[in-house]
User: Fold this.
Amino acid sequence: MWGSRGGRDKNTVVCIACGDSVPRADAREYDKEGNRWERHDKAFEYLCKPCFKDISHQPRTELEALICEIEADGLSQAEFLRRYVDRMEEEYGPIEES
Ligand SMILES: [Zn+2]
Assistant:
């Protein structure tokens, strides 16, 4: 599914969990930061429906632990996101930048 980016459908997003390209309309926006930052500064990530369903059934403690782990005083948003992406890539493999 990696080859579809920039193709016929530019409204395609990549699921951060499984790496599949899915239509934006079918994806679930994954607001990993809650309301911590203004929306316009956020880099939203997306989950396909199956992965969203998976995540919804899992306890959130793991994600919260991860966020607490990579968070540090004075950490910029960009650095936080970079660390987060690094950790997600360790878990799920490379994340395609859009
Ligand atoms: Zn997925």
